User: Which sequence fits this backbone?
């Protein structure tokens, strides 16, 4: 356990044991400028999701305080709250879009076991440095 895995999450997930994870936190790529409000093509459908930020990504980043150099990094307080209310100590937290490593960093400090996956070499590097800085013992598995 406590692994950082480099690869496409759909492929990496196939290598994990079934029902071996207690919490999955998902933060997939956003600001794709895509429109997801029409799912079934029904004209009466209400808007369900729109992936556009007015002001662009810089506007969003402006609000984030703790920066590790990853553009879409999320606030640690958010993950702290989610993890504390969703899983107990020693439970396993999985983030298949690990990015700058917020989930695994916070999970480590809260004594949860953790698995991070990302297909970006840069993301894995940034997360590795972040975990290293907080003295987190983690094994990094490159390219699954
Ligand atoms: C929005 S960012 C995650 C940010 C993260 N929550 C944080 O706090 O730093 C999304 C991440 O998903 C990764 N990603 C996108 N598609 C992926 C895939 N199919 N498999 C693994 N990682 C993927 C991207 O490389 C990117 O780092």
Assistant:
């Amino acid at each position: 356990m406590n692994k950082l895995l480099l690869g496409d999450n759909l492929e990496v997930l196939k290598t994990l044991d079934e029902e071996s994870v207690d919490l999955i936190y998902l933060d997939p790529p956003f600001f794709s400028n895509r429109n997801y409000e029409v799912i079934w093509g029904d004209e009466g459908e209400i808007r369900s999701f729109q992936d556009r930020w007015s002001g662009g990504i810089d506007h969003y980043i402006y609000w984030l305080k703790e920066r590790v150099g990853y553009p879409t990094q999320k606030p640690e307080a958010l993950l702290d709250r989610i993890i504390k209310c969703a899983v107990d100590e020693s439970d396993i937290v999985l983030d298949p879009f690990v990015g700058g490593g917020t989930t695994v960093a916070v999970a480590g400090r809260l004594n949860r076991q953790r698995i991070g996956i990302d297909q970006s070499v840069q993301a894995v590097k940034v997360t590795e440095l972040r975990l290293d800085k907080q003295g987190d013992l983690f094994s990094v598995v490159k390219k699954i």
